[in-house]
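Batch manifest, entry 17 of 40.
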Amino acid sequence: MTLSDSRVPIRERVKTRGDVYSADCPCRDLLDVVATKWAALAIGALADGTLRFGELQRRLQGVSPKVLTATLRRLEDFGLVHREVIPAVPLHVEYSLTDVGRSAVEPVFALREWAESRYAFALAHAERAGDA
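Output type: structure tokens
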């Protein structure tokens, strides 16, 4: 059973806090969404406020338009990101965090801080492993 299984009513799919280590825990779907590199970086970038697609892509150096589009769609599907189409010529699309998305900022920033502060250690370890 997954959050996307439309045959099961939402009240039965999301019962409690859950147990992420359980194979049938629906919170795994949400963890799968936010625990990717591009999703975590997009959440972090949107923490500063609303961004248009091009601005977000420039901020997330190295992400392809296809991957960014897929990432933003998944974040939107799970209610973490709000997508607003602004009728203008040319059409403008803006992305912002929802309240639930904003609640993910602190853990995402904590993980980013951890990764940045442990990078030298991890790199040295990987280089030693590559020499073996």
